[in-house]
Specification:
With 127 residues, the protein is of the alpha/beta class. The protein has one domain (10-125): Rossmann fold (3-Layer(aba) Sandwich). The protein has 5 helices and 5 strands; from the N terminus they run βαβαβαβαβα. Helix 3 (66-76) links the parallel strand 3 and strand 4 (82-86). Helix 2 (40-50) runs parallel beside helix 3 (66-76). The protein is globular. It binds magnesium ion. Magnesium ion (MG) binds next to loops.
Length: 127
C-alpha cells in the first residue's frame, strides 16, 4: 500500500503466545512497528515507556484481565485508542468495554482483514 506508516507503535497484549504471534505477524507485514505484552501489568509498563498509538487488548488474562487493564490504561491516558480482542462474543461485556472507552470489540478467531482495517482507520484518523 502506498502510504506513510505512522511512527507510533501498536501494542499487542495477549497471554497466549500463539494469539500474540498472529497479531504481531499480521501487523508487521502491514508495516507497523509492533510491541507486545503478555499481561495487563506488562501492558501498562509498555504504555508508559513506549506511548503506543494503539492497543490491541485481550480480555481473558490471568490476574489483571483486559477489562481492568482497559480502565487503568484510560486512567493513565484517555486518548490512547484501545481495541478489545476476545474469544467469546458477549454483548454485555462489549457494552461495558465501550463504556470504559474501548473503540472496538473484536472476536477470535480474528478476521485478518477486519483487524487490519480496525487498526488502519484508527491510527490514520489520529492527528
Ligand atoms: Mg487470553
Amino acid at each position: 500500500m502506498n502510504r506513510e506508516q505512522p511512527k507510533k507503535a501498536v501494542l499487542a497484549v495477549d497471554d497466549d503466545p500463539k494469539s500474540l504471534k498472529l497479531l504481531v505477524d499480521v501487523l508487521t507485514l502491514e508495516g507497523y512497528r509492533v510491541i507486545t505484552a503478555q499481561s495487563g501489568k506488562d501492558a501498562l509498563e509498555q504504555i508508559e515507556l513506549e506511548k503506543p498509538g494503539l492497543v490491541l487488548l485481550d480480555i481473558m488474562m490471568p490476574e489483571m484481565d483486559g477489562m481492568e487493564t482497559l480502565k487503568r490504561i484510560k486512567a493513565f491516558d484517555q486518548d490512547i485508542p484501545v481495541a478489545m480482542v476476545t474469544a467469546v462474543w458477549d454483548e454485555d461485556e462489549a457494552k461495558r468495554a465501550f463504556e470504559a472507552g474501548a473503540y472496538e470489540y473484536i472476536t477470535k478467531p480474528v478476521d485478518i482483514e477486519y483487524l487490519k482495517l480496525a487498526v488502519l482507520v484508527k491510527l490514520f484518523s489520529e492527528k
